Structure of 3-phosphoshikimate 1-carboxyvinyltransferase:
Amino acid sequence: MSPGGQLNGTIRVPGDKSMSHRSIMLGALADGVTRVHGFLEGEDSLATLQAFRAMGVQIEGPESGEVTIHGVGIDGLKAPSVSLDLGNSGTSMRLLSGLLGAQNFDVTLVGDESLSSRPMRRVTEPLAAMGLTVETTESGTAPLKLNGGQKPQAINYDMPMASAQVKSCLLLAGLYADGETCVTEPAPTRDHTERMLRGFGYDVRSESNRMCLTGGGRLTAVDLDVPADISSAAFFLVGASIASGSDLTLEHVGINPTRIGVINILRQMGANIEVLNERDAGGEPVADLRVRSAQLKGIEIPEEQVPLAIDEFPVLFVAAACAEGETRLTGAEELRVKESDRIQVMADGLQAIGIDAEPTPDGMVIQGGAEITGGKVDSHGDHRIAMAFAIASLRSSGSIEIDDCANVNTSFPGFGDLVNSIGMSLEEVS
Ligand code: S3P
């Protein structure tokens, strides 16, 4: 990345990853044909798509974000002839462990090196309480061997951590259980599974932090409009805030209240973000976001915002590095078990480019306002770390070299071309 630049223009970032995964899963299980518009053609959501093809679901596309899924009905999936390779995608593995654990066939879920080191007991333990056996390695990681042919029992589960993946896993298993499955979360997490199930005509009841559904129903196909991913927009919300002279509009971004922590946190830091043309896209709120550069200030990030911004911390740390004063994050130990240990890897990278960043067990303390000198950072194969450091170059005096970037394609295909088209200078070296 060459240093400096400003971000101007109007762009639409790719489709929401969480919704893209769920559109394939629910479309496959529905009765009828589901047409998806705005599907994310990234490696993670494509891994989910391929998994359902391997289970006999006919899926056309994606082509320019259009996907057509010929639903097989709630009991229509077929045993795949091979293990399902879910690549880097934690969402695929955790949601499918619940959904496929309840089928009448055996299946094995595998992933890449990063996914094979992420904790899976958070799903296998409650699934065992539902009577579904999922074998892990001794350390509780993938490969996951799901033994089919067991009917899940409905449970009431109090989640020990705020995780939409765990919640969704159990609700999807609950579709096949006799009776009512309820999941209680310690703090609100993204509710796309609940909203999309309702969109497919399935009754999901939520009462504050408790979500319930009764098994044995059916899903009816719908047309879905997947908005742009706020987690991808986040790189530009920060980039345009920190690069002076910027004025950038991000179109059709999903602003579900369980996802807007990044807007709330940046505004508290002094960012100038306008939410324009708010509208509804098939049960999900969307808007255009206009962001102009602003002098940011360091803050104590409110802990209740953490689950609402959980994927945005790599780039929020870059915002903190550019802010006046200290920024302190606590209550975010989940960041240690993402695609990489995002606390350690970001602290190492920030230090390598001249920033005082001190990792703590559950967060980080960053002294903002110093010169970003540039240097060499290792993204550890984590897409969001690589993109966060690309954004840091907007305020760097020297160039930033980022290693191990191929996984940017898991969530944001075309990132390099897009940033170059609006005023940055990113060069890919293979
Ligand atoms: C996701 C939930 C979050 C998030 C991930 C996508 C989802 O994970 O980090 O990128 O689609 O449900 P957790 O629920 O484990 O926090």
About this structure: Residues 18, 91, 163-165, 168, 189-190, 310-311, 334 surround shikimate-3-phosphate (CB under 6 Å). Residues 160 and 417 are 41 Å apart (CA to CA).
